[in-house]
Structure to design on (287 residues):
């Protein structure tokens, strides 16, 4: 009988790719958690059914987890993400969910680490302590960030306070492929993986690649920390989340995000995507 999987964050960068990768398989039935009907349509498939899900609404969570065996857990980027995640774990356990595959972040196991890592670590520990089977995916920064968060602006510039820090960015499709492996086999039970792309590169190098594939000028401008902080505050981001992002920028600038692991290759059997391939595949996003 097909295994029922609930994918949270199903409309997001990683969850949407997990749903796509599970679509059409006859060994799984997928519930794609969504909070707006408008976004549900494109997720539908013969084995994929959208289900109403909102982290702040317990009654919807209870309905969504009923009868589910495996859960792909993505927490929202909010200061109460640990509490929201823990409540979902409680409901999942009560409903008989067996295995949680949690989207975490590289560095979640570093003590004391940064706030973003601590949020993930606290929830990882909560899941491990729940007695449920788990798999923790700890990816580095996503290549999609160059589309979603820091694409070249109208002036062609990418403004980041990263200095010459190099990072082994990873493509979301590689994270999704690892998630699918964890959700569809027992080989990754009670394991945690640091997931990276195949090489570390600077924002300047990324800008050059984006410029080549898009045919438009793209430059990196290394901005002072205070300017980056102000820009996020001006966008209306809560101060606590801005502080968390500034800590992340600092470790990226210091070059701590440059480690390359072989986890994607070992788990999926294929090498992770290079940024050049990713950029060619997504060139339209920068045109
Ligand atoms: N970006 C990076 O470089 C990076 C690196 C490592 C780890 N991570 C981790 O990855 C996670 C984010 O994954 P992502 O980028 O795939 O997410 P995302 O694209 O930001 O999407 C967030 C998803 O969560 C849903 N969501 C938000 N608030 C919700 C709520 N209150 N109730 C129900 N659903 C809600 C969104 O639904 P809507 O579409 O309706 O908004 C969307 O599907 C975070 O935990 C982050 O720490 C990110």
């Amino acid at each position: 009988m097909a295994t029922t999987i609930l994918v949270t964050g199903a409309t997001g960068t990683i969850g949407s790719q997990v749903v796509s990768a599970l679509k059409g398989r006859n060994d799984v039935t997928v519930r794609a958690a969504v909070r707006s009907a408008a976004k549900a349509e494109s997720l539908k498939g013969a084995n994929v059914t959208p289900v109403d899900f909102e982290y702040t609404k317990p009654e919807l969570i209870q309905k969504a987890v009923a009868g589910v065996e495996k859960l792909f857990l993505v927490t929202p980027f909010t200061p109460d993400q640990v509490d929201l995640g823990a409540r979902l774990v409680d409901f999942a356990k009560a409903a008989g969910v067996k295995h949680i595959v949690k989207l975490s972040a590289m560095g979640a196991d570093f003590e004391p680490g940064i706030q973003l890592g601590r949020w993930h670590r606290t929830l990882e520990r909560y899941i491990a302590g729940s007695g449920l089977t788990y798999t923790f995916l700890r990816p580095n920064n996503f290549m999609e960030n160059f589309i979603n968060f820091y694409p070249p602006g109208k002036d062609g510039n990418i403004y980041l306070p990263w200095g010459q820090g190099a990072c082994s960015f990873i493509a979301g499709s590689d994270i999704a492929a690892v998630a699918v492996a964890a959700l569809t086999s027992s080989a990754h039970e009670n394991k945690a993986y640091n997931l990276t792309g195949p090489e570390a590169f600077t924002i300047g190098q990324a800008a050059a690649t984006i410029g080549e594939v898009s045919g438009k000028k793209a430059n990196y401008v290394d901005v002072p920390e205070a300017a980056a902080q102000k820009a996020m505050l001006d966008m209306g981001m809560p101060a606590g989340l801005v502080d968390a992002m500034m800590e992340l920028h600092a470790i990226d600038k210091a070059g701590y995000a440059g480690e390359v692991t072989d986890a994607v290759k070992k788990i999926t059997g294929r090498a992770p995507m290079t940024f050049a391939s990713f950029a060619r595949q997504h060139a339209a996003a920068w045109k």
